[in-house]
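Batch job 17 of 40 flagged for manual review because the log was empty.
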Amino acid sequence: MMAPSRSDLRSPPPADPKGPLRSPGGAASGPAEPDPRGLPGLAQAHDRIAALVARARAAQRVAEGYHQARVDELVTAAGWAIMEPARNRELAELAVADTGIGNVADKVAKNHRKTLGLLRDLQGAKSVGVIAEDAARGLVEIARPVGVVCAVTPSTNPGATPANKIINALKGRNAVIVAPSPKGASTAHRLAQFVRAQLERIGAPPDLVQVLPAPVDKAGTLELMRQCDLVVATGSQANVRAAYASGTPAFGVGAGNVAAIVDETVTAAADIEAAAERITRSKTFDHATSCSSENSLVLLETVAERVIAALQRRGAVRLGATQIERLQALMWPDGNLSPAVIGQSAAVVAGRAGLSDIAAMQPSMLLVEEDTAAIGPAHPFSGEKLCPVLALYRAATFEAAAGIVERIYAHQGAGHSVGLHTTRPERAVQLGLTLPVSRVIVNQAHCIATGGSFDNGLPFSLSMGCGTWGRNNFSDNMTYRHYLNITRISRPIAERVPTEDEIFGGFFGRHGRA
């Protein structure tokens, strides 16, 4: 008698008492949002997903027998599948044509840079067999695959994010099935064709990499989550919550809504220009589609006008009250962020808001100055905007600036990261000790640096955990180690039992033995 599948052994997830699943601000940045409650088509999806998973399991059993050099060859092949210039450009052009989000040149740069950085991080990293030994503690660590990975990916990065997950999964000798955003499905399928061709070229099973067949729907995505061994979800918070509710172990990312502080120590002309250049480069990259793009800028009062002037020299336009009203009406017509602005240039956003004079200026970004009280659900510019629109706040002191950021994150974006432009390094530690953030990015272009950069020590990744602040179970940049099971061997060592005084001596000395 055939054993039941993993999905057959699970009862359906319970209904979510918090109501319908929605992404913050209504931004539909991920795949069709699988709702775990009585979704039509689930039963029909079971068999077609089971067939994909069966092929993935057969391929994964082959890969599980590979030695490290062979695994690294898999990784290199998958990396070259997206980095080869002609293929990279085709994927970037397809992504923009099908999603209408971002721009080709930046997607080409992102596909190249993020993949090259990941390959650098993985070079020489052990992921097969014994990967660590600690003789003093009698411990040995052995890397094992997790099995079949469900990689949920967003429309904002339909090439770079699947590539990153595919490469990390292969590094662990896993198979991976991509569940793309419907808008990004064609890009994901083309990427998979490229990767599968490279795998065949080196004699590896192409079914190590698959994509949900079109049309991508909620039922298929949820069923894949249920049948695989690990879900790695990047995109809307609805998708992350569905992954957590699927019954399969899952890594998900938190909501983005990054704020950055420019403090009062940034007074030298060169420092102001450098900060403005970094902020502009970050906020305009790929039309601000990244969850790591700044959405709010908190300026210390003493440098605020000089920083704004430096931003204006780089094409930013500060809007007046009436213009802000028109922009808000376009961006949040029903309280949710409109697809009409997501991943669009500042000029397009201005034109669609009826600000033709601003659009004609070809602005790099639109600046919306807000009062410090304008934070929270009633003030949408304090949330994530996914386009080159930047909210400005002013603060009298550094402590007040940190307080503004904390209030912004209480509304949206807790756990992600904060930017800091300063000449006082200890300020970064102060923010790291007090704000609900997993990363403090100091004097860098935030969206370039947060997911790893060649000039910082963070791992290259397109999936950043936000800790419990962001309702995630990890606060790291996701790496290949998240795609591994680790078996530990423990051998006996010389016994060391502490004395009572070693443990309690100081405590008793201060408080007595009562």
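Reviewer: the log was empty due to a logging misconfiguration, but the result itself is present. Residues 42-63 form the longest helix (22 residues). Unflagging and moving on to job 18.
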